[in-house]
Please model this.
Amino acid sequence: MRIQVLLFGILKDWLGGSIQTMELPDGATVATLLETLSDTKTGRMLRGIAISVNAEYATADHVLHEGDEVGLLPPVSGGSGADEPVIALTRERIDAEQLVAAAKCGQDGAVVVFDGIVRNNTRGRPTLYLDYEAYDEMALKQMHGLAQHAREQFGIRHVTLVHRLGRLEIGETSVLIVVASAHRGQAFDACRWIIDTLKKTVPIWKKETFADGVVWADGEPFPPELALEEGEGTR
Model:
């Protein structure tokens, strides 16, 4: 049977677009749908959402029928879910304005944003576009770890960390970090620490296409405790 999946809020960015059509076996339930989505997308993205079927809230055991409209509903504005970190890898354009607005809460005194964008040159060499690839499972695990560590170390309330993959054009956002906190000092320090540590430890790679050639960008060195030394399988 065929159903329509309606995506709202930040789920549009995570899962790509606002409406998707899916084929499911007869007798499939809401739980079946979620399992199918989790096979192709990161399951963490669906944690804490609600489900509607034909504009009515539904439970996981609700049986779906041909033509049903299933809504995937993130926590609504003003909810307490903002304390949970928002972590994602995406091949869709990153909507920085929407993600920043979603991170804010009444108890915050500061929101610090790092919006990494694709520039038109590297050391004066004209850039046409970039391609990013990642070891997805490991990258997401590392990104969650960075967010958790930042909250514990700097005493901030919330972290949003979203990284783009695939082909990026000049001016597009490659990585967005949003840190919300009661005080600006902690927010600035945490945001700087996250991006600096991400660049050294999260397995994401960048290929640069220039007007006169293509190269994989030199990565920043791994921290000494992670990098193999000569003699440790490097010969």
